[in-house]
Please model this.
Amino acid sequence: MPPEVKFCGLTRPVDAELASALGASYVGVILVGGPRLLTPTVAQEVLQAATGPRRVAVVPRTAAAQMAALGRAVGADILQVHADPTPAELAELRTLWDGGVWAVARLGTTPHAETLCALFAAADAVVVDTLVPGGLGGSGHAFDWERHAPLLATARARTPIVLAGGLTADNISEAVRVLGPDVVDVSSGVEDAPALKSPAKMRRFALAVASPIPKFST
Model:
């Protein structure tokens, strides 16, 4: 089975509508900074336009009460906590938030295996993205999939991996072959310019994911 698709960094209701029509499992809005940053009001409008996909709000790593409030304000099903949260922070968030909790682990240099395993155990899913100095995500850069594959295979256990960072219709087959993610998360790879999604690129990405992909190599 191909991985599920998440279109993230959506800024217009029409993009959420198209993501729904393309069979995406998740749509995401950004509340943490960068060129795709939305106000809660606009983020709610975008998420409400999605019919079918689960709605993800990417929130800053801040006080649990603030993160939960943002999620409720925009009508999210899942909170994606950015900037490498700790298991303790996720546990506190769960006391105030009834929806799903995803954690972002940004990979650059190889992280400590014990730390990564603990994060996988604490989250409903872990978004593995690329660590770019001075950036939070959506950089269009992929991390070294081959280098990190053994560590991720050990850390993931039964927790879903959401693969982000530099994905496009041209490289998604290789990414899935190497890492076998449960969800593929695309933002800049389906844009004509930062924050401006391309309907043609969204369709091409969805088609590429649905096409036969070489078996995940363990």
About this structure: The chain has eight helices and ten strands. Strands lie at 4-7, 26-30, 54-59, 78-81, 100-107, 125-130, 161-163, 183-186, 191-193, 196-197. Residues 55 and 77 are 5 Å apart (CA to CA).
